[in-house]
Amino acid sequence: MNLYFNPNDPMKTAIVSANGxxxxxxxxxxxxxxxxxxxxxxxxxxxxxxxxxxLWKRGPGRHPVVRSNVFDGQSQEIEIREFLxxxxxxxxxxxxxxxxxDREYKWKTVKxxxxxxxxxxxxxxxxxxxxxxxxxxxxxxQCKWLLHIEPTDLDIDLIVLTFIVMEKRRxxxxxxxxxxxxxxxxxxTCEGGCEVGSG
Length: 199
Prior knowledge:
Layout: E1 2-6, E2 13-16, E3 22-29, E4 38-44, E5 49-56, E6 65-68, E7 76-79, H1 80-83, E8 95-98, E9 104-110, E10 114-119, E11 125-133, E12 143-149, H2 156-187
Antiparallel strand pairs: 1-2, 1-12, 2-3, 3-4, 4-5, 5-6, 6-7, 8-9, 9-10, 10-11, 11-12
């Protein structure tokens, strides 16, 4: 199954099937007051149903949370770090989660590819975020970013939810690295306190 991102923005997009029908709508509202979190809604527009609400809490002692019933059918609020957890290296971007089928899965950033979801035990690839020129269907001959999902018992809502969290965090890290690189260049000074390259 291919789910196309239109546009390629995990915070504000329509996720569309090959025949052009929106399967999910992602929207994010900005924080209205200082200290309040921005909120991402993942909805299924056909059923007019909210799949999940993500509150991007920030600051000391505050952690992003998800409100959803995809975990066990009951509405729950859970910290992202509890359901998308680390194992092994503290510096790894790989995250694990327990699926609705009681199997453990992991999202891993693969260089040159992006986010890839694996079954931890079998190591079988479940989903991959990639770009391709679409061969047929609604987006024929267009270059689109998509989430390719192999046949699986894992709930598609859970795949989409965990992917949105992982991709947002990956893009946030890239943005921070870019800002850090610019700051490093700006911080270079020569003797006497003059900036390198200044006239």
